[in-house]
Automatic annotation (TrEMBL):
Known function: Lignin degradation and detoxification of lignin-derived products.
GO cellular component: apoplast
Protein name as catalogued: Laccase
Alphabetized InterPro entries for the sequence: Cu-oxidase-like_N, Cu-oxidase_2nd, Cu-oxidase_C, Cu-oxidase_fam, Cu_oxidase_CS, Cu_oxidase_Cu_BS, Cupredoxin, CuRO_1_LCC
Cofactor dependence: Cu cation
Family that this chain belongs to: Belongs to the multicopper oxidase family.
Organism, scientific name: Vigna radiata var. radiata
Keyword Secreted tagged: yes
PROSITE patterns: MULTICOPPER_OXIDASE1 (PS00079), MULTICOPPER_OXIDASE2 (PS00080)
SUPFAM superfamilies per UniProt: Cupredoxins
Keyword annotations from UniProtKB, A to Z: Apoplast, Copper, Glycoprotein, Lignin degradation, Membrane, Metal-binding, Oxidoreductase, Repeat, Secreted, Transmembrane, Transmembrane helix
Length: 583
């Protein structure tokens, strides 16, 4: 029997006011990470990768926020959940035991899982969920990746509370390609609902309408003192004058792209989605659900207390939770009585900031960290993103809102796609997902409100092993334009182009950046615009691709790529583990 590390060891913490009453739900921060890795180094020789073992107990715990107390699903009783610390090259074993009433699966967002989709985590895509009372061990290697990623539940809306950070340190002896920070912190941005999230989701599904939006945003699970009953629910980060800090920022919100800024302090972006960037300075960042951003912050201002703040970005006529969550950057020796200064965040609908910020993101493209952009394309895909309405006699308006790619709204199977693919089980999915929309139209013209019926089905695209793929994602004005963050499992991709309006295949490719485009795993498609990505399909298996707005994923804004096996011995999907859950 393997012995797994329970992640409930004490961590350094600074409390603002008195404790939650749940010690393990207090403000935690990953300070003195250096000493952690010294300890890890004592356990294994630096010349060989070590095995990291963790135990995740899925359990319900009572948590109080905004004057409301409710039971939530957690990992090890903590919200947010524990951070996974590994070195590049490590093997990781995470045993997940489900003590909750819901089925569970966990996705290790951004880890490539080469030939190992069994450890990827999305329910009914690469595995059947872990049923109540059962366990499953996610067993994977961290190869050729370093930086900040994250993990989250990948079933229903349970990732509202089941999420945490993954910190991958470079192989021992390899420095960061930017100034070495004195300390580092994880900053997880999220959303909070006063009511039970699964009830809210079910209510929306029954009505065929969007469910209620969140009641607050959070920073490390805490909304901050601008909300009622929240003085004690505020994350605080102590800094020392003259020192440099690395913030590992993760957007774990379900449905909101977010701005983030620190009053009086400039942020230097050095990494996104565990890929180093050309450093640039900014007063605020924009981060979509699923994305991570590492920034350097220098404690070079007048000693005091400064608010960190986050609020939603939405430049379409769609209601959104527009409340600002705050945390505190506090210089050492400054008393808690000093009132913090608020940062000036961009306006909620500041499209120009969003476009210019994303344009600044460039891969480092150094000799050590090259940008290997595919220059020749074997397969061209063009996917339109749309909202639709299908008949639903029991719904409020007699229709149900759906979302689609190329007019296909994805239906989740009852057998996991990867199992059906590996064992050649017929009737689970079809490989006829269209490469292009069935009917071209003026995608971003006047809002289209007629003929909104959409096809439904479990339809995927088959991709030849090692072929190069270009995918253009085109937003449309079916019901409404909107920004959509798309995540591809099993891969990073290069964002070679983006624009507003309709993609022009005759002119726009000439403007692509094929030298140092940003490489990432989740990209925002701009409101009423398009984004072009490229990747090499060298990871065999079944890989989910979906909008990372949980609302849209549930409406069917998703599909999958079946990447065929290659000819080599190490180019085919590995056999499934013996403890793989069954449906």
């Amino acid at each position: 029997m393997q012995h797994f590390l329970h992640l409930n060891k004490p961590r350094y913490r600074i409390e603002l006011g008195h404790k939650d009453g749940m010690a393990s739900l207090g403000c935690s921060m990953s300070v003195l990470t250096f000493f952690f890795f010294v300890f890890v180094g004592l356990m294994s020789s630096s010349s060989e990768a070590s095995v990291k073992k963790y135990q995740f107990d899925i359990q319900v715990a009572n948590v109080s926020r905004l004057c409301h107390s409710k039971p939530i699903v957690t990992v090890n009783g903590r919200f947010p959940g524990p951070t996974i610390y590994v070195n590049e090259g490590d093997r990781v074993l995470i045993n997940v035991t489900n003590h909750a009433q819901y089925n569970m699966s966990i996705h290790w967002h951004g880890l490539k899982q080469y030939r190992n989709g069994w450890a990827d985590g999305p329910a009914y895509i690469t595995q059947c969920p872990i049923q109540s009372g059962r366990s499953y061990t996610y067993d994977f290697n961290v190869t050729g990746q370093r930086g900040t990623l994250w993990w989250h539940a990948h079933i229903l809306w349970l990732r509202a509370t089941v999420y945490g950070a993954i910190v991958i340190m470079p192989t021992p002896g390899t420095p960061f390609p930017f100034p070495q920070p004195d300390r580092e912190f994880e900053i997880l941005l999220g959303e909070w609902w006063n009511n039970d999230v699964e009830e809210i989701e079910n209510q929306g599904n029954q009505m065929g309408l969007p469910p209620n939006m969140s009641d607050a945003h959070t920073i490390n699970g805490k909304p901050g003192p601008l909300f009622p009953c929240s003085e004690k629910h505020t994350f605080a980060m102590e800094v020392e004058q003259g020192k440099t800090y690395l913030l590992r920022i993760i957007n774990a919100a379900l449905n909101d792209e977010l701005f983030f800024a620190i009053a009086g302090h400039t942020l230097t972006v050095v990494e996104v989605d565990a890929v180093y960037t050309k450093p640039f300075t900014t007063q605020a960042i924009l981060i979509a659900p699923g994305q991570t951003t590492n920034v350097l912050v220098q404690a070079n201002q007048v000693a005091g207390r400064y608010f960190m703040a986050t609020k939603a970005f939405m430049d379409a006529p769609i209601p959104v939770d527009n409340k600002t969550a705050t945390a505190i950057l506090q210089y050492k020796g400054i008393p808690n009585t000093v009132i913090p200064i608020l940062p000036q965040l961009p306006a909620s609908n500041d499209t120009s900031f969003a476009l210019s910020y994303n344009k600044k993101l460039r891969s480092l493209n150094s000799a050590q960290y090259p940008a290997n952009v595919p220059l020749k394309v074997d397969r061209n895909l063009f996917y339109t993103i749309g909202l639709g309405q299908n008949s639903c006699p029991t719904c409020v308006n007699g229709t149900r809102i759906l979302a689609s790619l190329n007019n296909v709204s994805f239906v989740m199977p009852q057998t996991a796609l990867l199992q059906a693919h590996y064992f050649n089980i017929k009737g689970v999915f079809r490989t006829d997902f269209p490469d292009h929309p069935p009917t071209p139209f003026n995608y971003t013209g006047a809002p289209l409100t007629a003929n909104l019926a959409t096809l439904t089905g479990t339809r995927v695209s088959k991709i030849a092993f090692n072929s190069t793929v270009e995918l253009v994602l085109q937003d449309t004005n079916l019901l409404s334009v909107e920004s959509h963050p798309f995540h591809l499992h099993g891969y990073n991709f290069f964002v070679v182009g983006t624009g507003v309006g309709n993609f022009n295949p005759a002119k726009d490719p000439a403007m692509y950046n094929l030298v140092d485009p940003i490489e990432r795993n989740t990209v925002g498609v701009p409101t009423g615009g398009w984004t072009a990505i490229r990747f090499r399909a060298d990871n065999p298996g079944v890989w989910f691709m979906h909008c990372h707005l949980e609302l849209h994923t549930g409406w069917g804004l998703k599909t999958a790529f079946v990447v065929e096996n290659g000819p080599g011995q190490d180019q085919s999907v590995r056999p499934p583990p013996k403890d793989l859950p069954t449906c």
